[in-house]
Write a structure and sequence with these properties.
Helix content is 31%, strand content 17%. By secondary structure, the protein is an alpha/beta fold. Strands 1, 2, 3, 4, 5, 6, 17 and 18 form an eight-stranded mixed sheet that branches.
Length: 529
């Protein structure tokens, strides 16, 4: 096949962009297919009001090019979506990547030809792409999850999903808006929508924990200090379980007095951000330790929200950290507004969507706009929506139906020359995604170069190595309290999805060490033919 590339890449988010750049550096030909009309991945699709990164800007950025991280200037402590989208566009232009991307190419199928050792990708619009290797850079949070409610087609107003937000601004002024869901996108968007809507009704099934972001304009002195010490900061972050730079207390919450423990929680609350859970080293291991921080956050919610009944509904009844902690700006305080109402749909779920709004049991809630902030079919959703066929035309959809399995979150037995970036079985969503993405991309690109340079045609995860790793992933998950909570980490938010703990909770340093050992031992656990 004359039009065959070395590498076909699916997705032009931060993973796909860096992989294209890395492949070119290694002398490999590569082509990206992207479903959208521009680069940016999650930051292309998630344009909802108030969308921000929950990792600080100075850390949620590429580190593979020092000139890039020295010259780019962030405007806020936590980057807003438009700025992250501009950053992705800047990277694509700076490294001359746009000529390697075909937009509006949603992949419908990917199949492996064993005789020729070639992957063929077919787009929903009919085009084909051939490559020796295929890399799914489709993202962990890129397949929107719609609630199983009847009647979408009957609603006569406007409907939106936060993960498929239109490019044009949505006008909420003077309108009655219904938001379904109280996950991260809802927690970020609700305060913004409430500021202009005539009435906002929030439908909550399960409350989520959120800590203040204390977002603010970027302090130039802080930015300069970080840039002067970037190398050391990045190295330090790499040694933390989450890959996020910060101060982490390794001691037990139960080894200090109530007063000292409360002071630490308060200090972290005032600082804001995800490192709040770095207060003590056993918060995700010891139920009593977790209970202590839960009690603190409940107190905060009840102190902020004036209505005691509303405050009680906003207090989660599960562990903190079982789901990804949310980071907000004035979320809880928004419920003190006269134009905001919280509706509990845990005991009485939404029964239907009709032409004027939503019905909960016998109560009708009319709305001009309905927003579904119901998250994603996480980690596996984007892959399962593509008909991926490996050896013997075996389908990934069928193999993963009982739950996913992979080797290092990078490759699957039975699917030669196919890689996934931050797939199930990798630290991915439990970490700062940018360093995780870079580590994965470098492993994959170097692996492909190794196979091609040595004259081999295929590389494939060995079944025994995959099973051993996947058992380790499940064992690591069992050591923490995370599995006590129904979360998208376990697929619990998607009706009918297998309950399997998908991310690797052993930490970023242990994962990187394992990958380095695999390479040092001649790509141990892979069969190279």
């Amino acid at each position: 096949m004359n039009d065959t590339y070395d590498v076909a890449i699916v997705g032009a988010g931060f993973s796909g962009l860096y992989l294209l750049h890395r492949c070119r550096k290694l002398g490999l030909t590569a082509r990206i297919w992207e479903a959208g009309t521009g680069v940016g991945g999650t930051w292309y699709w998630n344009r909802y009001p108030g969308a921000h990164c929950d990792i600080e800007s100075m850390q949620y950025s590429y580190q593979f090019d020092d000139d890039l991280q020295q010259q780019w200037n962030w405007s806020e402590r936590y980057s807003p979506q438009p700025e992250l989208l501009r950053y992705a566009g800047h990277v694509a232009e700076r490294f001359k990547l746009l000529d390697g991307i075909e937009f509006e190419r949603r992949v419908a199928s990917a199949s492996f030809d064993e005789a020729q050792a070639i992957w063929t990708l077919k787009a929903a619009t009919g085009q084909t792409l051939h490559a020796r290797f295929c890399v799914m850079a489709t993202g962990c949070l890129s397949a929107p999850n719609w609630p199983a409610v009847k009647g979408y087609e009957h609603f006569e107003g406007e409907q939106y999903h936060t993960a498929l937000w239109p490019k044009e601004p949505v006008n909420f002024h003077g309108k009655h808006v219904a938001v379904v869901g109280t996950g991260s996108s809802a927690i970020q968007s609700i305060p913004v929508i409430a500021g202009s809507a005539r009435q906002l009704t929030v439908f909550q099934r399960t409350p989520n924990y959120s800590v203040p972001a204390h977002n603010r304009p970027m302090d130039p002195q802080h930015a300069a200090q970080v840039k002067a010490n970037y190398r050391a900061m990045r190295a330090s972050a790499r040694q933390n379980l989450s890959g996020i730079y910060g101060t982490y207390n390794t001691g037990s919450a139960m080894d200090v007095s109530d007063e000292e423990r409360r002071k630490e929680y308060e200090r972290r609350w005032q600082n804001g951000g995800l490192t709040f859970l770095g207060s003590y080293g056993d918060l995700m291991l010891n139920q009593s330790a977790n209970d202590s921080v839960v009690a603190f956050v409940h107190e905060k919610i009840k102190a902020i929200v004036n209505n005691p009944e509303t405050a009680a509904l906003l207090c989660p009844d599960n562990i903190i950290g079982g789901k990804r902690l949310c980071v907000d700006t004035n979320y809880y305080a928004t419920y003190n507004r006269d134009n905001v109402t919280l509706v509990d749909v845990r005991s009485q779920p939404i029964t239907e969507i009709n032409k004027t709004g939503l019905r909960v049991a016998e109560t009708q809630y009319d709305a001009d706009i309905i927003i579904f902030a119901t998250g994603f079919d996480a980690m596996t959703g984007a892959l399962m929506r593509i008909d991926i066929q490996g050896r013997g035309k075996r389908s990934l959809q069928e193999i993963w139906k009982p739950g996913p399995g992979s080797y290092l979150g990078l490759a699957m037995a039975g699917f030669p020359n196919l890689f996934t970036v931050t797939g199930p079985g990798s630290p991915s969503v439990l970490t700062n995604m940018l360093p995780t993405i870079e580590q994965h991309v470098e492993f994959i690109a170097d692996c492909i170069k190794h196979v091609t340079a040595s004259g081999h045609s295929t590389i494939e995860a060995e079944q025994n190595a995959q099973q051993h790793w996947w058992d380790h992933v499940q064992e690591a998950g069992q050591r923490t309290l995370k599995q006590t909570t129904d979360s998208w980490y376990m697929g619990a938010n998607v009706d009918g999805k297998a309950r399997v703990f998908m991310p690797y909770s052993g930490g970023f340093p242990a994962y990187c060490q394992k990958c380095e050992e695999v390479v040092a031992n001649g790509y141990e656990g892979f069969s190279i033919q």
